[in-house]
Amino acid sequence: MNKYFAESELIINGDGSIFHLHLKPEHLADKIILVGDPGRVSLVASHFTDIEEEVENREFRTVTGRYKGKRITVQSTGIGCDNIDIVVNEMDALANIDFATRTEKSEFRQLTFVRIGTCGGLQMYTPTGTFVASQKSIGFDGLLNFYAGRNEVCDLEFEKAFKAHMNWNPQLCDPYTVDADKELLDRIAQDDMVRGVTIACGGFFGPQGRELRIPLADPKQNEKVENFTYDGLHITNFEMESSAVAGLSKLMGHKALTCCLVIANRRVKEANTGYKNTIDQLIVKVLDRI
Ligand code: R1P
Ligand code: URA
Fold it and tell me: 3-class DSSP state for residue 13?
């Protein structure tokens, strides 16, 4: 029996669009660029021709068009893995659930997600201006722990070593570790990008070891993060969405990768807020290679 998704579980608006994104199934391309900032959607779409759809609701702005003949959807997610739960689930539903019957389609449609974001660099070799492709993402956000199959898609040995190195506080949620899609990584992360391990945090300040007026629970967190090595890998950067993008995509059978521009280096304590031209270079590289 094909499972029926009730009205409360898969919420469809009166016009046939999905609840949060306000997008209809026919307007989703197979290739999807995810960006945090709704303003970055226009920057990506400025490279498109043949724009076929533009919709907006809350922080979710979507444009579908063509880049050198390839049909691509660019979607803003806002900040955080909680929003990625909404965006990736709703896009998967648009692709793989028949809205008329509210049942799963018989044929699976695979989507490709590339997130283009900004991040904080954690190594001396990731200064501001570096493009980092997340070969592996560690989720400090907890999202994937709510889904069955989490252990099958995560690198449990890496997690064990990381938790031991960090002397992990059990009051925090369990960190989960997911690899990017290998073929997508090899295609997109060429010599002009650093491949690294990214931690996606459930916050910009405390979870990323930034101390303003409130002291941190573990003042040594970032030092331990920066020193961690496993199988020749180092943790290169902090951002806030890559783990959920990689984890949910892997559970659903989609391909995913996150590429970020370093806009702050935590080691040398420098930041660059004038990064629009540099992120545009990253956008063009990803559009060419997706
Ligand atoms: C924090 O400033 C935001 O910037 C980074 C983080 O992941 C977080 O979303 O990414 P975006 O530039 O894509 O939003
Ligand atoms: N985004 C983050 O999440 N952290 C940084 O330090 C910079 C951008």
Answer: coil
